[in-house]
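Hi there, hope your week has been kind to you so far. Thanks so much in advance, here it is.
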Amino acid sequence: MLVVDAFSSDSIPTHLLTREAFGVYLRHLAEGGALAVHVTNRYLDLKPVVRGAAAELGLHAEHVPSFGQGLLWSSDWMVVTRDRALLEDEVVSAATLPPLPHTGAVVWTDDGSDLLGVLKR
C-alpha cells in the first residue's frame, strides 16, 4: 500500500495528482497493491482528478468517504489499484461510494492542471 497524504489544509500540490505522478506511484506499487490518495478539500473536488489519472493508466479507482459527526474531522480517500477484485472485496466494497452519474474524469498532467474545472459548487 502506498499512501499519498501530502496536503496541508486546502492547499493542493498539483504535481502529486498528475498522470505522470501516478505513473511513478504505479512503478512502485506491488502486484495486488493499492494506492490510497487523500482528497479532502473544502473548495475542490479532487475525486475526478484521481479517477482521470487512474483511467489514463488502466487503473481502477473508488471513493472511500468518512462520515465524521460533531467535532470529529472527516476525510475522503480514493483507493486506486490495478486489481479490480480488490475493490470488489466485500469489506472494501461496503466502504466505497460509486461515482455520481454526472461526475467525469479530469486529467492533470505535468504540463497543466485546471483548478477551476474542479471547483465545488
Q: What stands out?
A: The longest helix spans residues 19-28. The helical segments are 19-28, 47-56, 84-88, 90-95. The chain has a mean pLDDT of 85. The chain has four helices and four strands.
